[in-house]
Amino acid sequence: MAAYYLTYAVKPTAVTEALTVNLFEADSPCLVLAKSTHLQVFKMGEQGLEPIHDYPVYGKVACIRKMTFPQMKGLDSLLVMTDDMRFFVLTFNEHTKKLETHTNGNLLNPSSFPMETGPLVAVDPDCRVIVMAMYPGLVKILRIHGCKFEEEASEARLDADQVLSMAMLHGCAEPTLAVLCQRADQRFVKLMRVTSRNELVEVSSVWKTRLEGAVPDSAHFLHPVPNTSEGCLVFGADAVVYADANGYKAASIPEMMVQAVADVDDSGARFLIGDSLRGGLALLVLEREEDQVQQIVYEPFGETVAPSTLAYLDNSVVFVGSVVGDSQVVKLETDDDNQNKIIVLDTHENIGSVLDMCSLPQASFGETRLVTASGAGKDGSLRVIQRGVNITSSATVQLDDLQRVWVLTKPSGEAEAATEESFLALSFAGGLAFLQFEGEELCGFEVPSAPSDPALLCSNVAENQWLFVTEDEVVLVCAETLARVAEWKAAEGQAIGACACSEKQLVVSSGRQLLIFEIAKGKLTQTKDTTLEHELSCLDILPVNDDGTSVMVAGTWNVEAKVYHLPSMRVASSAPFKAGVIATSCAITRLGDQNVAFFGMGDGSVVRYIFAEGSWHMTNQRHVHAGKQPVSLVSCKFASGPAVVALSNTSLLFYADSGRVTFSTLNEANLTCVAPLSTPAYPDSLVFSTPASLGIGQIGRMNNLHINKVALGFSPVSLTTISANPSYVVVVGHVDQEDGGIASAIRVFDGTTLEMVASHELPAPEAVNCVIQHKFKDDNTEYFIIGTAFVDPTETQPSRGRILISKLENKKEIAIVHECEAAGSVYCLTKMCGKDTDDLVAGINNQVVHFKYDATGQDAAKKLRAVSGNQNFGAVVSLDSCDDIVLVGDMLNAVFVMQKAQDKLQLVAGSQTANWVSSCALVNETVFLVASHAHSLSVCQREFEPGSTMQTLNAKFEIYLGETVTSFVRAALGSAAAVDSSMPLRNTFFVFGTMGGGLACLLPLTPPQTELLTALECRMEEKIGGLGGLDHREFRTARDEQRMAQQVNPRLVDGDLVETFLQLPEEEQKELVAGMSLMGEDGRPYVVTAEVAKAALEAMARLH
User: If we measure between CA atoms, which residue out of 507, 504, 412 comes closest to residue 461?
Assistant: First the structure.
C-alpha cells in the first residue's frame, strides 16, 4: 500500500479573526489575520497593506487577542488559542528582532467534551487575567503578575447550559467578566468578578438589575466598551443594548447578525458593526451627557462582503475579513449630500468555504482546471483554479510562416525629453521584415541597410545600434540613421550555425571555428578566432564585467554541455547529455541570486544547471519535459523579474521564486517564438507567435496557481461537468427569499468562458443538495442528475425529496427528462460505471438506495426504479463508486463498503471505529480516503477479519489537518509529464477542498521516496521549531472529537514542512542531512546529500 505526501497548493484563505496590534514597533500598527492553520501579518504602507510574514501554526487557530502589558512601552503581545486547547503568547524581542514565545500551555481536559462553538477567550484590558471558556459549565483562568503568567491555570464553575459570548470590561478595580448565557430558552447576561484566588463571583449590582428583562431574546454577542466603567454592548438580531455601572440604554437596529465589531478609537463612543449574514457595515455611536449614554445612533454605510471580523486600520480605512467571500479593504466616506458610502480599495482572495469541486482537463497544456463551489449567500461564487502563467492577449494579427521575432528600440526626440520608439523584426523563410509601433497600431517600416536573408539574431547593442546576424553575414546598423556602419561576412563555403551577443560582444560559430567580436560605435572588431574540438549546436553568453569578460555556455554535436570563459576560451566545466540527444538551444541568465544555464533538447526536454556560488562549475542538474518537439529557449526580462521561456508544443516559463528556480506552464498553445516588449500602449508585455498568427499580450503573475472568480449571488452547494464539446459546468445552489424561505437555482456555465448559458429555478420549499453527471447505457445523451429535499421546519429530517434527471438542450435550455419521488432528503448521488452496469445510487436520509433507469411494462418511457437498498445507516452524506463497489460515508457512524452482487447492493465491509464522516473517496477497490469532522484525514484499507462474514475497514495511517474536508477530486494540479517517470500514475492523485478555503494535494509515493521524505521530515521536525513552542508531531497526530491524540503513523508525509528545506541556506541544508544514509532500490546504502534531497522535493513541488 502506497504512502502519501500531503501538501497545500492553496493555504486556507478564510479569515476568522483580524487584529491591529503594535507587534513590532510602538505606534506602528500592523494587521494580523488568523486563517485556520497560519497567521498572516501585514504592515500598513503608502500603497496599502503589504504582507511581511506568514507564520504556520501547528494547530487550528481558534482565536487571537491583543495583550498590552504596561511594562512593554507601547508594544503589544499576541495571544493565540488553538482548537485543541493549547495557547501561547508572542512578544517581539527588540534585541533579536524576532517574535518569541512569552508563555505557552495546554488546557486540554481529557475527560470533557469541548463546547460546540469552540473556545471563547477574554483578556482583561489591564492584563491581569485571561478567562477561557472551553468546556460546558467550566472556565479556566490564567492570572498574570506584571508580565509573568502563573504556571497553572485555575478552574471555575459557570452555571449555564451554554455560554454564547464573553467580554472583560474596562474601568474595573477587579477583573470583571460579562458572560452571555443561555439556560433553556432564556438568554441573560451575568456579571462576574475574578477574585485574587481566581474564583468567579457573581456580582449583584445595579448593572445586572437594570439589565433584567432588557437582554433581547436573540442576544448573541457581547462587546466591551473602552473608556467607561463596566461598559458593554449586547447585540441581538434587531436590537442593541448598552449597559454600564450607571444604567443601560436600548435601541432598535435593522435585522442583522452582528458577530464582527471594531472600535473606531479608544473614546468608547464609535463602533463599526458588520452584518455577518447579509453583508454590510454600519456605524454605532453612543451619544453621552455627563458620562451617561443618552442615545444610541445607528448609521448604515453600505454593502460589503459578509464579515466574520472587522479591524479598523486608520483614516476611515477598515479591513473586512470574511469566511464566505473575498475579504476587503474598504474606505468609509461621506459624499456631498451627506450620504455614507463605501469604497473598496483592495480585496484578499478567499476560496472558502469550498463545498464541492470538479475538474476540467485542458488537453492543450496537459494541465487541469479545478472549479470550486465556494462561499455562501450573496458572496457565493465559482472559483476556477489553474496552474500556469496566463498570457492575456491584447492584439492579434493573422500571419503565416513566421520563424522568429525580436523587439528593437531607439530613442526619439531631444535628449531631455527623449522617448523610445519600438519596432518588430520578423524573420520569415523569405527574409526579414519590420513593423513600427505607433500607439496601439503596427505599421510597415523599412530598414534598407538590413540583410535581406532570414535572420538568426536581431538585437539592440551599444551606442544606439542594431545588430543583425544571418547565416552568411553580420551587419551593424545605426538605429538613428538606419545606415549600415559595419559588417563581417563568412568565408565562402562557411555558414554561421550559432550566435549570441551582449551589448558589447558578439560570438558566432561556423563549423568548428569560433569567433569573438567587440562592438563599438560604428565598429565590429574581431578579437578572437579559435578552432574547437567539436562543432557547437547552440551557444549563449552572459557578461561578467565591463572589460569584455563573459561566460559562454554551449551545446556540442558530441552531446555535451560546456562552459567557457571569454575571451580566453578556457573551459570552466562540462557535462554529458543523454546519449543521442542534441541541445538545439541554450540560455544563461541570473534568476534570483543564482546563475543558471538551460539547454533545450531535441527530444522536447529542458536540462537545467545551477552554477555553484563563486564559480562556473555546473551543478544541480535537472531534467524537465516540456513537450515532444525540439525546444527553443528565449531569455526575457519582465517587471516581475527575469525569466526564460522554453518553447515546444507546450511552453514553460522558468523563473525564481522564494530563492529557488521553478517553472510554470504558459497557458497559450503552440507558441513558436516570443520576445519581451514594453511600450506606452503595451507596458510589460510579450510579443508571441503561433503557426498562423502574431500576438501581443501581458504575462500574468509568475506563480503556479491562478484563481479566477465567477460571482453567483447565491449559495452553491454542488457542481459537476458535462464533457460534451464544448464542456459545461452545472451548479446547483440555494437562493435566499425575502420571506425567509429558500428556493433553488440550477445554472449551466460554458466550460471555457464560464459565461452562463442556461438557468432554471425550483420554487421553495424544494432545496437542491447535490448534482452529478451520468451517461446511461445505450444512450449517448449526457445527463446531469440532481438530488433535492422538501424543507419543512416542523420536521427534524425531510420526509420528501426528488431525483431529477436533466439535460442541456440546444446549448441554452435545461430540460427535466424524468423525476422520481424519494422518501427523504437526497443528500448525495453516485454512478456505477462498471463493465455491465450504469446504475444510480442515492443517499436518502439514513438509506442507500440502488436505482435502475430503464423501461418496464408496456410503457416505453424510461423511469428510475429502486431495486435494492439498506436502511441501517445514520445519515448518508457522501458516496463514491468504482465499478460495482460503493463507498458510503455515514456522518453519524463511519464508512462502509457495499458491492453489487446478483443485481443488488450488499454491505460487505465497515469500519469498527465511530467517525463523524464529512467526505470520502475511493482510491481503488480496497483503499479509501475518509475525512472527519474532527479535522482528520484517514487512509483506510479493506481487510478480512477471521471468523467474521464482514470485512473491516482499518485506518492504515491518519493525519490531523485542522480543517474539515468537504470534497475530493481525482486530479493533479501540476503537470505529471514534468516529473520523474517513476512517479505513480496520475489517476491516483487527489485534490481536496476544505471549509477554511484550503486546497491540498494528496500524492502517492514510491518506497524510495517514502523512505527519503520520511527521514527528512523527522529531521525537519527537530530543526524547525513551531510557532509558540507547538510541536509538529503532536499537531499532525489524528485525534477524536475530544481532541485526544490517536496513534501516530509516519506514512503520510507533511509536504508543507519538508518543502521548507528548499528555503534554507545551503549550509543549513547540508547540516540537516549530514550523516543521513538510506537503503537504495538496489539494496545498497547510499548517502543522502543536500542535492539529493532538493531534487526529490523539487519533483514533488512541481505537482502542486
Answer: 504
